[in-house]
UniProtKB/TrEMBL annotation:
Keywords: Transferase. Gene3D superfamilies: P-loop containing nucleotide triphosphate hydrolases. One of its GO terms (molecular function) is ATP binding. It comes from Gordonia polyisoprenivorans (strain DSM 44266 / VH2). GO terms for biological process: cobalamin biosynthetic process. This is Cob(I)yrinic acid a,c-diamide adenosyltransferase CobA.
Length: 205
């Protein structure tokens, strides 16, 4: 797609503006590093455009605060104080799901917590509560069978309005890939850990 020009124009009866304003479902998958980083970069663009941004992190510990969380949370606070950009919400699985705080048993069950998280996201999608969603590491509960992929694909396909969704994680199910508008598979060519080097602040978190 050189210089942002589409390689083909479909005969779908839509204008260029209508196609440009269609919601996007993006999937970042593969074994390479950078899937979440790219998604959070897109979220920052969405914030700058004044969109309502919501991040839902699956698998990662509710106690682990990554650099992008600090940055996007600060941007959300900037919006609250100045009106610049858009509002930001950040939620983590387990005890980080605010809707599970009254149910500690469910919070301790990873599969149940993942299902509860998806149920809340599906509700928000149906209500069009946000403009831009990052479902970080969401492919794992799909791959493990904790959440039904067909239900997810249906909810995403039927989401109203112009809600953009970015899903990250390895081993994305084929049904999810087939339903996406934008799919990027990241391959590892080299990594510092190959040479025995541990993750570094500012690079890994």
């Amino acid at each position: 797609m050189p210089q942002g020009v589409p390689t083909a124009i479909p005969d779908d009866g839509l204008t260029t503006r209508q196609r440009r304003n269609m919601p996007v479902l993006a999937v970042h998958t593969g074994d390479g590093k950078g899937k979440s980083t790219a998604a959070f970069g897109m979220a920052m663009r969405a914030w700058n455009a004044g969109m309502k941004v919501a991040v839902f992190q699956f698998v990662k510990s509710a106690k682990w605060r990554v650099g992008e969380e600090s940055a996007l949370t600060a941007l959300g606070e900037l919006h609250e104080s100045t009106g610049q950009g858009g509002p930001v919400e950040w939620h983590k699985m387990g005890q980080g799901w605010s809707w599970l705080r009254a149910n500690t048993d469910a919070a301790e069950d990873h599969a149940e917590a993942a299902r509860a998280g998806w149920a809340e996201i599906a509700r928000r999608l149906a209500a069009a509560e946000h403009d831009f969603y990052v479902l970080d590491e969401f492919t794992y509960p799909l791959h493990w069978g904790w959440i039904d992929t067909d239900d997810v694909v249906t909810a995403l396909r039927e989401r109203p309005g112009r809600q953009h969704v970015v899903i990250t994680g390895r081993r994305a199910p084929q049904a999810l890939i087939d339903s996406a508008d934008l799919v990027t598979e990241m391959h590892k060519i080299a990594h510092p850990m190959d040479a025995g080097r541990k993750g570094q602040k500012g690079i890994e978190w």
